[in-house]
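quick one, two chains, predict together pls
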Amino acid sequence: MVTTHAFKGSPFLKEILADVPGGERIVHCLQCGSCGGSCPNGADMQYTPRGIFALMNAGERETVLKSNTMWCCVSCYFCTTRCPQEIPITEIMYALKRKAIAEGLAAHTDAPALAKTFTDMVDKYGRSFELGLASRFYLFNKPLAMLKMGPLGLSMFTRGRMALVPTKIRNLEQLQAIIKKAKELGGAS
Amino acid sequence: MKYAYYPGCSLECSSGAYDVSVREVAELLGIKLLEIDDWNCCGATEYFSQDELTACSVIARNLALVDPSLDQVVAPCAACFLNLKKTDRLMSEHPEMNRKVNQCLAAGGLNYQPGRVKVRHILDLIVSDIGEPAIRDKVVRPLSGIRIAPYYGCQVVRPTDGFDNPEYPMKLDDLMTWLGAEVVDYPVKAHCCGGHMTQISEPQAFELIRRLLQSAADYQADMIVCMCPMCQLNLDAYQARVNSFFGTNFKIPIVFFTQMVGVALGIDRKKLGFGKEIVSAAAVVVAKR
């Protein structure tokens, strides 16, 4: 009897893909492993992207969202470029990050704290503020590591590469109104 | 040739050398850059890991603010370049995303028609719009004798832009050749520097940085030229930490490619931001020539 490999997709898979424009390409995954083999951090991942896709398809929600896979992703796009099925893998990693943060399953990494601290600065000033970002992020998340950062910060400062005060955009109200609306509408396309 | 200019936050301060050298080189080549008035941060990768609509809306404000008389915007930072391009593409290809982003922009009295502004990288502009004959013609101090490793990083050449090969890009190699440099052909020129991983997981980030420095050293590069503020910061500012972590002794200057273009075109080095790099490039730039 001839059987066909049916990739119908679990509800969990569909839930994630609803947050990734073009993400439905995932149903064409061949399990070839080009993604993991191309990834600079593939060796550190609990499951490489193809493994994560299979787990998503099997509805292994908690295993996927608690994994370190997406947090190893540095958005280098090698997997996306090399995927023979043109699956937007990097974008799916972003969607998994969003879901893991939303469900409080990312406690094992400082990445969400860095992201939040960074975007808080932008929400507040309209521009990134490196000194504020670094000091707040390290103080609240890894105070001991701050000591090691001292000499680096100082050498940046003495070369005029670290501002002591943030730059603010003029029309901050406009940006904040846009951000407020986006948060109201919530989620992506 | 007139383009909108989106410097991005890094170029304001931590990568000031990139900003000044881009502006100096552009002026000399007859590229007019009109900075987007009151631009905001592109959010790098950080909004995308929290909320995609907020990410795209924050980025789209910059596209909406591009002067109506201009239809191209230049972004030297790799993350800014990718974000502007990605948002424009997402809005073009997904009507629902376009509708929602414009709904958000409308809350600030703005709107953006996807496709109206073409997002360009400064390297593409110099190599494609100015081109080889004009560049060669303007070289007054050839970079002969300097072994330069061109470093592309990730987000300018990937996912795909069309102006260069995402696996084995050549445009920066070409440009450095036109300037008279000895171009180092090393295998990791489009590999990742670790991005924000230096803040999150040092062992992972340091290993990626080590691979790049090791390869450049193996191929006897005098310096690495890069085109992304994050790459420059990771390879330059963290080089000492990487050395103490692995017991290595790398001492490779990392500068922005536009600084070396400026040198070759005869612009005063003081105007090109030299001296801001932590591993000094002075010995290579001055003594080698």
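Chain A touches chain B through 69 residues (CB under 8 Å).
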